[in-house]
């Protein structure tokens, strides 16, 4: 087989066999397929797509490009996970993992860093001093066994083909391809040895899939491929036309997540998304027999403090300084400048350009402009307005937290631009848009 002939076939819209795809992915890992050929491959797939069978074959080849985890030591409970396609203010993983652990599931979660304008769970966890997101498989397994959950980063030996291909896609304008996103996400998730997976497919102006049609197609692709590979999977399409919750930015989001786990008044949309994704998994894995029973268990995990305790146990196991973690809001490092941003006029929030809000965090140093960059954990936004909120000269759009006073005017201008106002209160739109099984 020749790599160039495989690329040529995709270019000409001919179908590839599973053997050809495996040959190409193995060659990518061994170095026999050059990066320029891999780049052409991703562009050909971006332009012409792959069939369902080809996407499955690509996913399995990428899954098998490195180690595959198995969990014989966790046979007593279901092994579950959730994955989001990325949003702004999306801190759901931080609550979902300990809540499900408290309800009797194991949650070995391999999370990612911020991508484009979206935030990443690992960057958020890095704001917990000492927390190690990079541990070996043995420590990962030990933590899941002990505390029911562990959130860590992709280890070097898990789906290395994805690492290589993703870096190439990132600089070749081939990220937003449904078969490539499907295989990239699932290669990692399937290598992690899950039994049950729920996907949170974000849809809207703060998501990679901006419209409903593309988001539905991505959900369909991921659900079909994951189920075809033997992991029971469903997906929820959730709204990303506004910030999820009231905070954006690493430590600020951890603070909101911990407050949620302590049972303090949560943001309604954040609560809906968290509960819906947790419920979906509890039903799929058989821990709960009805949505009502699932919700009751989940609410109890918060009311009894069990979920909060699981989070703290996980943090302690993974090396966090508990004197800071347990009093996070007081003891964490804070940005010295906290300034409100007011809209130019009084009115109701009618729309939010959520992508701009994500870019605002990057401008404050809370996200990356280069891959190797460190992020600032203290910066971001709190009390972020929601669609339908009234803003006036007393009620700001949000508060900006920054270590760089000079960044304030530009970021404030961006946020004012990102928000549109109306004289009348707009109708609330649903946050859970659709379920795909
Ligand atoms: N997240 C991934 O891991 N891969 C993609 O391609 C997109 C989002």
Structural notes for this entry:
The protein is an alpha/beta fold. It folds into three domains: 3-49, Up-down Bundle (Transferase, Pyrimidine Nucleoside Phosphorylase, Chain A, domain 3), CATH 1.20.970.10; 72-158 and 174-325, Nucleoside phosphorylase/phosphoribosyltransferase catalytic domain (Pyrimidine Nucleoside Phosphorylase, Chain A, domain 2, 3-Layer(aba) Sandwich); 333-422, Aldehyde Oxidoreductase, domain 3, CATH 3.90.1170.30. The chain contains 18 helices and twelve strands. A four-stranded mixed β-sheet has the order 1-4-5-12, with helices on both faces. Uracil binds at residues 85-86, 112, 180-181, 184-185.
Q: Strand-residue fraction?
A: 5-15%
Number of strands: 12
Helix content: 40-55%
For the record, the CATH architecture of the largest domain stands as 3-Layer(aba) Sandwich
Report mean pLDDT, rounded to a whole number: 96
Small molecules bound in the structure, each named once: uracil
Number of domains: 3
Question: What is the molecular shape?
Answer: globular
Spatial separation of the terminal alpha carbons: 37 Å
- Which residues sit in consecutive blocks of at least 5 with pLDDT less than 50? none
The string of secondary-structure elements, in order, is HHHHEHEHHEHHEHEHHHHHHEEHEEEHEE
Helix/strand class: alpha/beta
Query: What is the CA-based Rg, rounded?
Result: 21 Å
CATH class of the largest domain: Alpha Beta
Instruction: Kindly report the spatial arrangement of strands forming the biggest sheet.
Output: 1-4-5-12
The CATH topology assignment of the largest domain is Pyrimidine Nucleoside Phosphorylase, Chain A, domain 2
| CATH homolog superfamily of the largest domain | Nucleoside phosphorylase/phosphoribosyltransferase catalytic domain
Compute the number of helices. 18
């Amino acid at each position: 087989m020749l790599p160039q002939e495989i690329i040529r076939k995709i270019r000409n819209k001919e179908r590839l066999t599973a053997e050809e795809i495996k040959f190409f992915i193995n060659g990518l890992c061994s170095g026999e397929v050059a990066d320029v050929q891999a780049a052409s491959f991703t562009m050909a797939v971006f332009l012409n797509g792959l069939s369902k069978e080809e996407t499955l074959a690509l996913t399995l080849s990428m899954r098998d490009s490195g180690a595959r985890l198995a969990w014989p030591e966790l046979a007593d409970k279901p092994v579950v996970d959730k994955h989001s396609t990325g949003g702004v203010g999306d801190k759901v993983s931080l609550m979902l993992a300990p809540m499900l652990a408290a309800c009797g599931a194991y949650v070995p979660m391999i999370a990612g860093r911020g991508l484009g304008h979206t935030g990443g769970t690992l960057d958020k966890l890095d704001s917990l001093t000492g927390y190690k997101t990079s541990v070996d498989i043995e420590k990962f397994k030990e933590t899941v066994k002990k505390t029911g959950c562990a959130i860590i980063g992709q280890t070097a030996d898990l789906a290395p083909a994805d690492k290589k291909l993703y870096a190439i896609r990132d600089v070749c304008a081939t990220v937003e391809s449904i078969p490539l996103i499907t295989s990239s996400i699932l290669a990692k998730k399937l290598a992690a040895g899950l039994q049950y997976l729920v996907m949170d497919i974000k849809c809207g102006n703060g998501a990679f899939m901006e419209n409903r049609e593309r988001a539905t197609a991505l959900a369909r692709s991921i659900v079909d491929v994951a189920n075809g590979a033997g992991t029971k999977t469903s997906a929820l399409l959730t709204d990303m036309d506004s910030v999820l919750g009231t905070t954006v930015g690493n430590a600020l989001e951890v603070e909101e997540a911990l407050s949620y786990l302590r049972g303090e008044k949560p943001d309604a949309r954040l609560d809906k998304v968290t509960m819906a994704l947790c419920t979906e998994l509890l039903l799929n894995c058989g821990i709960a027999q009805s949505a009502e029973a699932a919700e009751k268990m989940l609410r109890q995990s918060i009311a009894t403090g069990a979920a909060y305790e699981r989070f703290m146990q996980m943090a302690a196991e993974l090396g966090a300084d508990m004197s800071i973690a347990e009093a996070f809001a007081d003891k964490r490092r804070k940005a010295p400048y906290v300034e409100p941003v007011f809209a130019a006029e009084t009115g109701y929030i009618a729309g939010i350009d959520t992508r701009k809000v994500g870019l605002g965090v990057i401008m404050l140093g809370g996200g990356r402009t280069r891959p190797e960059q460190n992020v600032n954990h203290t910066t971001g936004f709190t009390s972020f307005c929601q669609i339908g909120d009234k803003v006036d000269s007393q009620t700001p759009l949000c508060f900006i937290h920054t270590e760089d006073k000079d960044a304030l005017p530009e970021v404030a201008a961006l946020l004012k631009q990102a928000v549109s106002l109306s004289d009348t209160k707009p109708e609330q739109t649903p946050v859970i848009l659709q379920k795909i099984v």
